[in-house]
Specification:
By secondary structure, the chain is an all-alpha fold. Helix content is about 60%, strand content about 0%. The longest helix is centred in the first third of the chain and has 18 residues, at about 5-25.
Length: about 70
């Protein structure tokens, strides 16, 4: 029904697991990317496919960072 090969299913599973662990703050983006077997930038760019933001910061944190830049 999925029309996916075994390799495609494994790749999707690794990515889904990496995204969930990243979202739960159990893995850094770098470690999650390694789990998903891709580079960090590609991992971060693919988070939107799963509805997960790249940055999970409160508005006050972002404003503080901007003011300190």
């Amino acid at each position: 029904a999925l029309q996916m090969t075994s390799d495609e299913i494994q790749t999707e599973f690794r990515m889904a697991l990496a995204v969930k662990l990243f979202e739960m703050k159990r893995l850094s983006s770098g470690l999650a990317a390694r789990l998903a077997e891709m580079d960090r930038v590609t991992f971060l760019m693919n988070l939107s496919r799963y509805g997960v933001p790249m940055v999970d910061a409160e508005e006050t944190e972002v404003l503080t960072d901007i003011n300190n830049a």
